[in-house]
Design goal:
Length: 227
């Protein structure tokens, strides 16, 4: 049994973490860094099936993220139905075609060249799962009144980061895809008006032959300042 006490009527449990030796911290921090450094976004997916329980564990991990006032302002929609994936692909490609042909600036298109992206999104049908992260702007209170959530963008961003890390840790790949605009997803998935699409994340194994751009990460000196 956890030790418990009440502070102003709210239940608290004791929390502690074992103090690790400097050596062990160094070893763990380095091996986690190396594990995360080997994560890459993939655009070429295999259709090899993935057990649903793995996806459930990944989503439970995402939902361990901290959030404003612990409102957990997120919904994860998981698409496995090929018909729905097809509908999403058609709608996303329609938007992307317009974006690539007229909405995106020439600077933007130039910046995307090393990534080799275009309006075609076959992975929306190939990947065994599409996880669509929705941010919940508000909730409906018991009286039916709208109650705003707090720091929704930050909270859902952190949860999405946890999601990507969990996917990578499970030996799978993902892509943080943002078809723009994304509101067609609200309609396709029949989501309530308090939810807005945030990210579309295909999940699966990489295709047998999968290529990713040879990107370099910024050096510590370029991203970090100690005072
Ligand atoms: N949403 C488009 C374009 C795109 C934009 C950025 I910024 C990227 O890093 C990658 C793609 C697409 O998904 O193709």
């Amino acid at each position: 049994m956890h030790e418990k006490k009440l502070i102003e009527d709210h239940p608290y449990i004791r929390y502690s973490k074992p103090i690790l030796s400097a050596e062990e911290m160094l070893e763990r921090s380095l091996s986690f860094y190396e594990a995360m450094d080997s994560r890459r976004s993939a655009r070429e997916f295999s259709d090899r099936p993935v057990p649903r329980e793995v996806i459930e564990n990944i989503i439970k991990t995402a939902s361990t993220a901290p959030s404003g006032a612990h409102k957990q302002p997120w919904t994860f929609c998981v698409i496995e139905n090929p018909e729905i994936k097809k509908q999403i692909r058609i709608a996303a490609e329609e938007e992307e075609l317009q974006s690539y042909e007229s909405r995106m600036s020439s600077d933007w298109l130039e910046d995307l060249k090393p990534l080799g992206t275009d309006w075609r999104k076959p992975f929306l049908e190939t990947a065994p799962y599409l996880i669509i992260v929705f941010r919940r702007i508000y909730e409906f209170g018991a009286d039916g009144k709208k109650k705003n959530n707090y720091y929704v963008q930050e909270s859902v961003g952190i949860a999405a980061g946890f999601l990507l890390a969990a996917i990578h840790n499970a030996g799978l790949v993902s892509l943080t895809h943002t078809p723009s605009p994304m509101n067609f997803l609200t309609k396709t998935l029949d989501r309530p008006e308090n939810e807005k699409p945030f990210l579309l994340i295909p999940v699966g194994y990489p295709a047998e032959e999968c290529w990713v751009p040879d990107l370099q990460r910024k050096a510590l000196e370029d991203i970090c300042v100690f005072y």
